[in-house]
Amino acid sequence: MRRLLLSLSFIIYHLSFSFAQQSANIVFIGNSITYGALHQQRESTAPPSQCARWLSAQDGVDTIYFRNCGRSGRTTYHFLPNAADVVPAGDKTYFGDVVAQTRELVTAHPGLPLIFSIMLGTNDTVERPKNSHTSPDDYVKNLTAIIDSLLTLWPDAHVVLNKPTWYYPDYHTKGGSIASKKSLKLIAAYYDCFPQVVRNCKEDHVHIGDAEAYDYFRQHYKTDVFEEKDARGKSYWLHPNEQGARRLAEYWGKALLPVLKGMSAGAPFVSMEKRYAVPVLLTAGQSNADGRVPLADLPEELKTYQYCQWSYGSGDFETATGEFSPYSPRVAKPKIESSWGFDAVVYKKLEQLWQRPFYVIKHTDGGTAIDPSCTSSTHGLYWSADPAFLDSTTSASHGGRSLLKAFERQIDDCLPNLPENYDIKCLIWHQGESDQPAADRYYDNLKAVILHIRRHLVEVTGRKKYRKLPVICATYARDSRMRSQQVVDALYRLAREDRHFHVVDATDLPLLRDRLHFDSQGAQTLGQRVYETIRTQKIVR
User: Fold this and answer.
1) pLDDT greater than 50 at residue 489
2) Potential cystine with 526: which of 41, 145, 203, 342 (Cβ 3.0-4.6 Å)?
3) Where are the alpha helices (DSSP H) in 133-241?
4) Which of 156, 153, 151, 150 lies closest to 24, judged by CA?
5) 278 DSSP β-pair partners
6) Distance CA 474, CA 491 (A)
7) Is pLDDT of 272 > 50?
């Protein structure tokens, strides 16, 4: 009977919670995209209107009352509280307009949660006749001033910051504004500043919202953005059409919903960066994984990275400390430090996919084998997981001979420096050329290495899912002087037996003159294939 009463109480509690409908006041602050420029029925199709309808359709949400404070052509400067701070001097500030509309809203619907949804920055990025390319530092200063002033007036309100959307980076407006690739890059720089804005303000009331709409419009601008003609008569795409506004409204709504529910229930809000796990990749192997393509052959698009942070170790050439630094292609081996490998392409592709921070833990050392019987292995270092070998030595980065211990020690040192919500996605492995003399044992040797790494990750993280950590392993060029068919066969056998082990074919790829290492085109193609495998196997999304 007591169990029945407890069950009924549980059901009644959850029924009462599910039927509790929360209304809210939301003020949308932005530019012409928020305003709904070019829409025939702006009042009903602009992103704020569609966002309010989307939210109202969600479980636990009743009516969303809102105001659209989007102003065409305006920057963060145009919403500063002090008119004297506006650039260019003499331009109007719309902060007073935001305050007036907010007061009207909360007066009409008192007692409801108040949220400010902000998406500003598009006009800050472009070159303008009187103010061009707002610097990230000024962008932070402006947003901080706007938010601090709003929260001074409404201390219980919350603020959600959304990343500006992608636009076609080549247009000249009749007013003299010029958008370029330089302009577009500033959007990423602004988004990287959001954590600083949060720290500057009332941290538990300011949240990083949507960042996914940017990539959506980059891929769908031909269907979801109005085609316009600029001052030169050239086509460009900037303002979402009715269909695009609906998609943008959904992205905004998904960022606003947890804030609204957190305010309603008094629960702590989980920000965007905490709701989404922070990806981590492991990379290991020998010289082709380390990189042997001269930096002189590095494509322009691979020279700069915005989101990738890495920890790099290389046997006894370089000992990783566990600290992360911005990724930049290089190797540790003396005299060839200015080199890069196929993994640089993988990281760039993932940057473009995620548009948010991620981490790489890489340990690679050229000319190294798994099997200790391969006496030509560099400096007598080995990846072997053989228990007798591991018992006989220590980490290669600390005076021993074990590369496996060095790699796992590097992982251990890195874990405390990762965000709490990290998620190790996969291991990218390329190795085997130096195991040619022991090719008949490569299947058992590599299988043991992978098992050891997976078990180690489970042990140090407590996450059992890493027992099935995906592994992406590439083969070798047909013309490689160190290619072994037995090693290749071992890779494909592992793939047949382990559905989390994936082989990428590199048979047709071109090599450098040494007939061992992929050249620039080969590395680019292999990087693209590894990335495609990661995507098609749904290892990352």
Assistant:
1) yes
2) 342
3) 136-153, 181-192, 194-200, 213-224
4) 156
5) 422
6) 9
7) no
Find all residues with CB under 8 Å of 365, minimum gap 6, and list them.
286, 290, 314, 315, 317, 378, 381, 396, 403
- pLDDT band, very low/low/confident/very high, at 534 (cuts 50, 70, 90): very high
Residues in the chain: 541
The pLDDT score that the predictor gives to residue 192 is 86
Q: Among 293, 353, 280, 366, which Cα is nearest to 512's?
A: 293
Q: What is the mean pLDDT of the chain?
A: 91
pLDDT in tens, 502-529: 999 999 999 999 999 999 999 999 999 9
Give me the torsion for CA of 339, 343, 348, 354, rounded to 10°: -150
Least confident piece of the model among 80-84, 108-112, 249-253:
80-84
* Sign (positive or negative) of CA dihedral 164, 165, 168, 174: negative
C-alpha closest to that of 115 among 55, 190, 205: 205
What letter does residue 397 receive in the DSSP assignment? G
pTM value is 0.56
Amino acid at 79: F
- Cα-Cα end-to-end distance for the chain: 48
- Can you give the C-alpha Rg of the chain in angstroms? 27
User: Which secondary-structure segment (H or E) carries 15?
Assistant: helix 2-19
* Section 58-62 average pLDDT: 92
Q: Tens of pLDDT along 427-450?
A: 999 999 999 999 999 999 999 999
Going by DSSP bridges, is the β-strand pair 293-294/339-340 parallel, antiparallel, or unpaired?
Answer: antiparallel
Q: What is the dihedral of CA 190, 276, 29, 247, to 10 degrees?
A: 110
DSSP for 405-461? HHHHHHHHHHGGGS-TTEEEEEEEEE--GGGGGGGGGHHHHHHHHHHHHHHHHHHHH
Residue 275 pLDDT > 60:
no
> What are 118's strand-pairing partners?
29, 161
- Whole-angstrom Cα distance, residue 209 to residue 303? 29
The span from the CA of 519 to the CA of 474, in Å, is 15
- % residues pLDDT > 70 (the chain): 94
Would the pLDDT of 49 be above 80? Answer: yes
Tokens found for residue 19: 């039927």
Nearest to 118 by CA among 70, 63, 154: 70
Task: Classify 377 in phi/psi space as left (phi over 0), alpha (psi -120 to 50) or beta.
Answer: beta
